[in-house]
Automatic annotation (TrEMBL):
Segments forming domain Gfo/Idh/MocA-like oxidoreductase C-terminal: 155-390
Family: Belongs to the Gfo/Idh/MocA family.
Domain Gfo/Idh/MocA-like oxidoreductase N-terminal: 12-143
Protein name (Swiss-Prot/TrEMBL): Gfo/Idh/MocA family oxidoreductase
InterPro entries linked: Gfo/Idh/MocA-like_OxRdtase_C, Gfo/Idh/MocA-like_OxRdtase_N, Gfo/Idh/MocA_oxidoreduct, NAD(P)-bd_dom_sf
């Protein structure tokens, strides 16, 4: 169980690029990273595309004025000169900037935590992976939902054969917040999400389904997709060529089949994030809106609801417990779990401790790379007229 005591010798001196006053996701980074005060300390930032607003915001959240920078390039150049300069940076800017900022950060000798979807292409991710290896740095990806410790319970139960051989994978991440084009015109965050120059080759496949795809890989690390078929639509036509709805059929190497539905036009749906894994003996099901519960349904027996923090759970799941039973937790805890692992990974890398890195389960550069591979294959299939394509 976690109680906030330190896991590494001292916290990393940490900065953010993006995540400022108007940002959607910035606060989740800070609540995740700063939760324990023993993993990261926020000491600098280039928080906003608008430098004046960025500085005002940085000072407001406690960063010294002299370390609130107008842009990330100035921040990296100036911080390198300081003895107490930053050691790690989180990138919470729109998708199209992730690659160049990550590259610049690694070249400046920093560990990186970057938002999803990591970059536009697998080739870019491979290049950054090599650069990170060369520089001896970690690149973490904020698949925040994956920090829900019930994911580790599912992983343990799959590994222990509790559901038998996996036959069917059913994934869903949908909501209805873009059922009309209203937000596309008025929300800065929505405008770039439907602009391929900034969002990349997809909208909801990258914005939503990369989370769920990573979570499925976390739960079932041995399940490899052999081929997929992606059928995507711009149901609100002005979003073409980017999709606001997609169905993906998957075939796995072990013969299992799967399907994923992702959508932002699922009108009336406030949170349709669901993972169901069907095995030969039993099924597991988890809903984001009930993150403390895991359904375990054994064929022919009464269904069970496993509850977070209870001693019958796997020790890997209980190791990420923060509140104990009876107290309900949610997404901020999931983010804190992810950030703590980023810090442990960075610390291990600094010490050349490859053993710790090998055993640490967290969304690393490979997870980011696989997210892009997922999008690339889906887009290739969809663009070929929703055809089956080999998963490359
Ligand atoms: P947003 O448009 O709400 O905010 C973007 C922020 O970045 C703003 O503060 C903006 O001023 C700043 N910015 C833009 N360009 C910049 C630059 N060059 N330098 C410094 N700051 C810059 O977007 P958002 O919803 O916060 O999304 C940002 C990223 O986070 C996207 O990649 C998105 O996919 C991802 N995201 C992830 C999650 C998650 O659960 N992990 C949730 C939401 C968004």
């Amino acid at each position: 169980m976690l109680n906030g005591e330190k896991k590494i010798a001292r916290p990393f001196r940490w900065a953010m690029v993006g995540g400022g006053r108007t940002a959607g996701v910035g606060y989740k980074h800070r609540t995740g990273a700063l939760r324990d005060n023993t993993a990261f300390q926020l000491v600098a930032g280039a928080f906003d595309i608008d430098p004046v607003r960025g500085e005002d915001f940085g000072v407001n959240v406690g960063v010294d004025e002299s370390r609130c920078y107008p842009d990330y390039k100035t921040m990296f150049t100036e911080e390198v000169k300081r003895e107490d300069g930053i050691e790690a940076v989180s990138i919470a800017t729109p998708n199209g900037t992730h690659y160049e900022i990550t590259k610049a950060a690694l070249e400046a000798g920093l560990h990186v935590v970057c938002e999803k979807p990591l970059f536009f292409t697998v080739a870019e991710a491979q290049e950054i992976k090599e650069l990170a290896e060369e520089k001896g740095k970690i690149v973490g990806v904020t698949y925040g939902f994956s920090g829900n410790q019930m994911m580790l319970q599912m992983r343990a139960m799959v590994e222990q054969g509790k559901i038998g051989d996996i036959r069917i994978v059913e994934l869903q991440y949908t909501h209805g917040f873009n059922a009309t084009d209203k937000a596309d015109a008025i929300s800065e965050a929505q405008k770039w999400r439907v602009d391929p120059k900034i969002a990349g080759p997809s909208f909801v496949l990258g914005d939503l389904s990369t989370h769920t795809y990573y979570m499925s890989q976390l739960i079932m690390p041995n399940m490899k997709i052999s081929k997929l078929l992606c059928d995507r639509q711009s149901i609100v036509g002005s979003r073409a060529p980017l999709e606001d709805n997609a169905f993906v059929l998957m075939h796995y190497e072990n013969g299992a089949v799967g399907r994923l539905w992702t959508s932002s036009v699922d009108a009336g749906c406030m949170d349709g994030h669901r993972i169901r894994i069907v095995g030969s003996k039993a099924s597991l099901e988890w809903w984001d809106s009930k993150p403390n519960e895991l359904r375990y349904e054994v064929q022919g027996e009464p269904a069970q609801t496993l509850i977070r923090a209870m001693p019958y759970l796997d020790e890997s799941c209980l190791a990420d417990e923060r509140l104990g039973a009876l107290h309900q937790e949610g997404l901020s805890d999931a983010w804190a779990n992810i950030y703590l692992k980023f810090a442990v990974a960075m610390d291990a890398k600094n010490r050349g401790d490859e053993e710790t890195l090998k055993n640490l389960v967290y969304p690393d550069i490979n997870a980011g790379l696989e997210g892009i591979r997922w999008i690339e294959n889906c887009v290739r299939s969809a663009d070929a007229g929703a055809a089956w394509v080999e998963f490359e």
